[in-house]
Write a structure and sequence with these properties.
8 helices, single chain, 232 residues, mainly alpha, globular, 2 strands
């Protein structure tokens, strides 16, 4: 499989190109473009959270814990005192960073359910729903953050498959096909959890009209070959 730095480089490159195109066509501000690139980078290492005690796992659970705690604080800022808000936020962070991380690492295996197209789709829906419901992002930005996270996720799976092919020796390694699979049929428990996450997230998704309109605009610009979008 591809190493951590390869996944970072691949996701950064893909996210930067996609964010540049989307920003040019839709006229997004710079901070939104940087957020989309960051989302793609996170997605690019997200599948490897099934590696217990791995660098991606530690980083992602730390970031997820911090982001969840901050989201809680600012979502409930008018309801509780500052002490109550930050005390609860600390509990949320600790619960995600260590107990949840341990449980996830114990119950998952590498190249299992998280290395599948189902996981990629569930990630898209979950990130879009959380962005819209907890962070106050508008519908278009929430969908874009979810989509860019999924782009990074898909890049990770593609790189893992490419690294399963020995082009020098012209042979395919045994790991080929274990990353870019529709669903993990060997370990149904993980796949069922992902289905539950996808279904639950679908109940809280932002309206689809803004992203459908934006997608149509971007696709039309690319097909028309508008100057300055990709080529001079």
């Amino acid at each position: 499989m591809a190493d951590f730095s390869t996944h970072l480089i691949g996701a950064t490159a893909a996210g930067s190109l996609a964010a540049t195109v989307v920003a040019k066509v839709l006229g997004l501000p710079a901070d939104h473009s940087l957020l989309l690139i960051g989302s793609c980078i996170v997605g690019g290492v997200l599948p490897d959270i099934d590696l217990q005690r791995s660098t991606p796992s530690r980083i992602l659970f730390t970031v997820f814990g911090v982001a969840s705690a901050i989201a809680w604080v600012f979502a409930r800022v008018d309801d509780y005192s500052a002490l109550a808000l930050w005390s609860t936020g600390l509990v949320i962070f600790i619960g995600i960073r260590w107990p949840l991380s341990w449980v996830f690492g114990t119950l998952t295996v590498h190249r299992g359910a998280t290395h599948s197209l189902l996981a990629c789709a569930a990630t898209l829906l979950a990130v879009a729903a959380v962005s819209y419901q907890l962070t106050g992002a508008d519908a278009l930005l929430a969908w874009l953050v979810g989509l860019f996270t999924a782009i990074g996720y898909l890049v990770h799976l593609l790189l893992d498959e490419l690294w399963s092919v020995d082009f020098a020796g012209v042979k395919i390694k045994r790991s080929f096909g274990t990353a870019l699979k529709p669903v993990d049929t060997r370990r149904w428990a993980g796949s069922v959890v992902l289905l539950v996450i996808a279904f639950a997230s679908s109940l809280y998704l932002p309206p689809t009209t803004p992203i459908r309109t934006a997608a149509g605009t971007v696709i039309a610009a690319l097909l028309a070959g508008e100057p300055g979008v990709i080529l001079p």
